[in-house]
Amino acid sequence: MAKNVLPSAAAQQAEPEKAKGRRAFWSNLAGIFLRRREASIILVTIALVIYFQASNQNFLTQTNIRTISQFVAATAIIAAGEVMLLICGEIDLSVGSVFALVPFIMYFTNQGGLPLWVGIIFGLLVAAGVGLFNGLITVLLKVPSFITTLGTLFLLNGLTLTISNGFPVLTPQVGALNQVFGNSPYSEIIWAIAIAIIMQIVLSYTRWGLHTVATGGNLLGASESGVNVKRVKIGNFMLCSLFGGFAGTLEAFRITSIDPGAGGAGIMFMAVAGAVIGGTSLMGGLGTIVGAFLGVLVLSILNDGFTLLGVSAFTFDLILGAAILIAMILNVRLQLLREAGRQ
Amino acid sequence: MTESQVPDVILAEHIVKSFGAVIALRDVSLHLMKGEILGLLGDNGAGKSTLIKILTGFIQPDEGRIFVNGEEVKLRSVTHARSLGIETVYQDLALVNELSVYHNMFLKRELILKPLPLLNNGSMREQARQHLEKMRIDIPSVDTVVAKLSGGQRQAIAIARAVYSQAKILLLDEPLAAMGAKEGSRILDLIRNLKATGEVSMIMIAHNYAQVLEICDRVNLLQHGSIALDKRVTDTSLEELNELVMREYRLGATNPQ
Questions:
Q1: B98 with A224: Cβ contact below 8 A
Q2: Which chain A residue is nearest to residue B94, measuring alpha carbons?
Q3: What are the distances in angstroms from CA A288 to CA A146, A180, A219, B85?
Q4: B203 and B32 in contact (C-beta within 8 Å)?
Q5: ipTM field
């Protein structure tokens, strides 16, 4: 490989400037689509929007855009945490159960006489605590995170059903707080976008992000370099769980009721699917928050678009499954192409 | 200057280390003089890696004393050894394929854009570029992800990273293992350039005796957990080294464990 680096660089210098510029333009453009997964997902998104708008004029109405934003928001927030965890080489299956549990913690804290904002904070602390628990079991006791969080998935679901007796409750109303945390029309999606932007900055431009990539990319190497890989993993477990709890809280305020059956494995798998479609590797080391956001957006547009077209929920799962498979096959093919490009 | 006048940067005396019933190091005494390159030879399982891991603070010996720059030390951890200027370039190189060259070089010693907790990528990129240029390491760009580099380039980056962190004693675990002859000779050049600065002393684990004789000042041969030979390369030869190893093989064949 190294042998080729020098001769090709020398050859490029020998080329006339104009031809070099033209070639650089096309190879850059091709490079963007080969390298930047986000670019290809944006293309898919645009194509889907055009298709659905052409088939049904109601697609791009304000009401429907709001509906899509609601589909996207909670899942995208969960996906942001899941991406961090996937990049450092772990996964959290329990995040959907945290999503359902945390609003109940908030509710019961409030019922106990404390202000609602205390309830929100207490709920989020419990969420972070669950993440800490998942992280400690995985990192210190060396149980694979798939198993650890499969356990907490059921455990927390049982806990939620027990404390709620299986019945939904009404979300406490205190006005402004409800509006900020999900009740006003676009508040949820604004939170989701803000979280995506902040987490992308954390991932790309902070020490934490760099160490997260290093931990997932080369666990032994990162620890030999002095990165505290245990802390990185536990921290990302907490982050992921925290976002799960936060998404659940927002949904509770938006829907104005708290359902013990909300979230669950469904929303968790949607978040993971969005992350994977958005280019996050389940092997660790690779992924972007923005990609996952776009991945969730594509899934949500598909969901909403097919609903508008009158396609049944059964068919949607068929299409979702096919979309994941096709996206992954493309991903593997592109990966091979990228590697061929390196030779 | 005669040999006795050059100070030892590392002196290890009577090192013993066992893992359960397995004796990895029986009784090893070894020294490294300032500015020299010591080749550490030995068959698989002779104890080379154990010795390197002890000198790098990764594991602690059962018995024996270690002096660094004349002072006795108990190397508690990798970080402790590092603070004394001992850096190891592991065989796996400890590079992250997914990260760029400059992020790898600054991993765990990142520059930060104060007061914001953001990475100062501009400075890291520039400093990495200058440092690699100074060491005459040839890569397409410091922005390239490590996955795109060849085995030799990766080895060079790993060595450059160790040197950049002010290492005075460099332990190289098979630096020529993962590459062809042409790349290997570039790494040998890099090691030679490093030696020429006079700042860095090195212990190099190797399998290829010809390369060891080419670049090292002195060789130690580890056999069955102790040093079987300690000679300047000018006083030994490929034949002698081969003969010693062949004798071991013959012993092993007639006297299976």
A1: no
A2: A221
A3: 21, 27, 19, 37
A4: yes
A5: 0.81
> Within 10 A of A8 (CB to CB), how many other CB atoms are there?
10
Top CATH class, A38-342? mainly alpha
pLDDT tens digits for range A107-156: 999 999 999 999 999 999 999 999 999 999 999 999 999 999 999 999 99
pLDDT above 90: residue B249: no
Report the gap between the CA of B181 and the closest CA in chain A (Å): 12
Cβ neighbourhood burial of A184 (10 Å; 0-12, 13-18, 19+): middle
Long-range pairs for A152-159 at CB < 8 Å and ≥24 separation? A152/A93, A152/A94, A152/A97, A153/A93, A153/A94, A153/A96, A153/A97, A153/A265, A153/A268, A154/A97, A155/A94, A155/A97, A156/A94, A156/A97, A156/A98, A156/A100, A156/A101, A156/A130, A157/A97, A157/A100, A157/A264, A159/A101
Q: Rounded to whole angstroms, what are the CA distances from A30 to B49, B100, B149?
A: 46, 21, 21
Q: Which of B56, B80, B92, B96 to mutate to test the interface with A (most CBs of A within 10 A)?
A: B96
Beta strand ranges found along A152-247 (DSSP E)? 169-170
User: How far apart are alpha carbons A122 and A101 in whole angstroms?
Assistant: 12
A206–B117 CB contact, under 8 Å: yes
Residue type, A154: F
**Domains of chain B, start order:** 3-93+167-254 (3.40.50.300)
A14 touches chain B (CB under 8 A): no
The nearest alpha carbon in chain A to B165 belongs to A225
**Residue A340 at interface with chain B, using a CB cutoff of 8 Å:** no
Q: What is the pLDDT of residues B68-120, one digit of tens each?
A: 999 999 998 888 888 899 988 887 788 999 999 999 999 988 999 988 899 99
Interchain proximity A220–B103, CB inside 8 Å: no
User: Would an 8 Å CB–CB cutoff place B189 in contact with chain A?
Assistant: no
How distant is the alpha carbon of residue A343 from its chain centre? 33
Residue type at position A161: L
- Rounded CA gap, A209 and B87, in Å? 25
Q: Is A222 helix (H, G, I), strand (E, B) or coil?
A: helix
Contacts of A221 in chain B (CB under 8 A): 90, 92-96
